[in-house]
Structure formats: C-alpha cells, structure tokens
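Support request, please re-run this one:
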Amino acid sequence: MDNLKLPLEKFEDTKLWSYFIRIPDEVAQKYIEGKDRRIVCTLNDKEKIHCALMPSPKGYFILLKQALKKKLGIQLNEIVELTIEKDRSKYGMPMAEEFKVCLEEEPLALKYFEKLTPGKQRNLIHLVNQIKSSEIKIRRSLAIVEHLITEEGKIEYKRLNELIKKYNQNSRI
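Re-run finished. Output below.
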C-alpha cells in the first residue's frame, strides 16, 4: 500500500477524458503484474475507486471522471491524497449482488460470462453497478443473462441495449 499526495492534472488534447493523476513510475511498477494493472485507490479518505494504471510516454496515470472530481470538490492542480493498493477482486471491481445472483441462477450464462475478456466482464458489471435501484439492477441483470445465453456468450451491445429497454418497458405493464 502506498500513500501519496499528487496534483490533479488535465489532458488538453482530448475531449473524452480530461482529468487524471500521474502516478510515479517507481510506485506504479509495484502494482503491475504482467498485463494486470488494476488497483484500488482511495481519494482524500472519502472515495474508493477500482481503476487501472494507464500507461503513457510520461509514465502511468489514473483517470478521474468529472462527476468524481465534483463529488470530491477538487480543482485542477489541487493536491489529492491517494492511497493505492493492488486490486485483488475477481473481476477488477465489485459485482452487484443482484447480478451475481442472476448469474448463479443460470449456469450457462455464468459459463459464458467467465469466458469473456476481463474488460468485457467489467463493462457488464458496470452496466449493473451504475444503477442505484435494486429493482432496476435485477431487470438489467436479467437482460444481460438472457443476452449472454441468446448470443452464446458474445456481446452485441446494440441488441443488449434493446433487450434492456424491453425489460424496462415490460416492468411498466
């Protein structure tokens, strides 16, 4: 575990991701295991995020979403207290209980899910985790499980989104 105090910086040449914190190379190297660069960061003793050490020509950095920056009340060039530890979670982020239960109830969907790349697994987990309502998490989880089975483990995001909409509409009937 490392405790650091580093400034919040901003990319000037992109509109996709703006804010980041540069991680000293000697610190970053301690957390890289082969291709695995997943870490857990606690920011200002308030927010814990699962993220990756992103490589760049100038070393490594972590990305910060605008919403998190706002929630923490930090500004550009402000010093951020950062605690870093290796992410030892199975998927590189926590999985919502609703999604876990839905996968466990459908062994074929779980089998397909386990065969996905770690990045695709995290994308699906994030689709569920970003929802606050447990009821909506369950609907979204059921849609993902059905999609995994129907598409035999392949993720077709357009079809998945249509299926999620269908599940949401059916709940209103």
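The first strand starts at residue 2 and ends at 7. Helices lie at 25-28, 66-72, 97-105, 107-115, 118-129, 134-150, 157-170.
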